Amino acid sequence: MAIVSDTVLEIALNLLGFVVGIALGIFSYIGFKNTGSPTLFRLNISFFSIGIGFGVVGFGYMIELFVLGYGQIDGWIQTLGIGIQTVGYFFIAFSHGIKSFFPKSRYFKSIVFPLFIIPGNALEHIIRSISFILLVYGTIETIMSYMESRKRSTIFVAAGLGLLALGEFLGWYSVVFPKSILYLVSLSTKIIGLGALFVPISQVPLRGGMKFGGSV
Amino acid sequence: MAAVYRTHMSIIGDILSTTRDEAPDEAGASVTYLIRKANVSYGRLAKILETLVQQGLLEQTTSERACKYRISSRGREFLQAYRGFREFADSFGLRI
Fold first, then answer.
1. Least CB–CB distance from A96: residue in B5, B84, B93
2. pLDDT digits (tens, 9 = 90+) for A106-148
3. How many separate domains does chain A show?
4. Which residues in chain B have Cβ-Cβ distances shorter than 8 Å to A215?
5. How distant is the Cα of A158 from the closest Cα of chain B, in angstroms?
6. Smallest Cα–Cα separation from A188: which of A173, A161, A166, A159?
7. Is residue B2 part of a domain?
8. How far is A193 from chain B (nearest CA, A)?
9. Integer Cα distance of B92 and B87 in angstroms
10. Count of domains in chain B?
11. For residue B64, is it within any domain?
């Protein structure tokens, strides 16, 4: 019974992540349609991927538990969902990479792959490690931008990305304590982090209906 | 102070802002004026102006001596949207 209630909570949190991610994705898409900006296009892909990643886990668990009636949830659903989220984190980090490297030399001067330890060979843990590194990179770049601009919303975004990174780390660490509350804490941390990314949206006056195409 | 890199989009934003807020008269801003205010070369400015006129964001007016450009109502809407989403991207430490 406790396992079912834990899974239901996981489903609820994942579906919340799905809604938040898709909402951010739609907002970025409106921005891309209005301005044709490649940065907003990358953010659009990023947030849709993050939202869909949460959705795959949430809906996957829901189907297995309530439709197929499985007692045990398949591990590949979690791996697939986290993999899709990682694509989203990659695009956030990639946008920062373009901003930081291209303007100076037009080419990447160097790409440094940080060393990290992977516990075992599990695909899920490899993906989580990559997500963590991408998110830490995004957080550091955003903090550096905050140092320059001192915009209050930037610090919320940095905190959001930082919480997503912490959530990934806790999720990865939960392998040490399987079936513990650590995974739920990880999931909640990620949802709060995603929520913090909403702050900049509140500052944009949405009028809607404008279409200028991407050729500007 | 390090030079600030401007994206294609931010140059468009600067051109539209100049035609809206700093146009010297009602007929609009001349190419020379835009080159100085938006800080962009003639070759690049000419291409951008052509696109902006085609997209209906700028209106081309012909005065006695030179071609001038003024912002259209569609251009004003675009500029407002651009500024809003620039704030959004800025919050992520990114440039649109």
1. B93
2. 444 333 433 344 444 467 777 888 888 899 999 999 999 898 8
3. 1
4. 51, 55
5. 8
6. A166
7. no
8. 13
9. 9
10. 1
11. yes
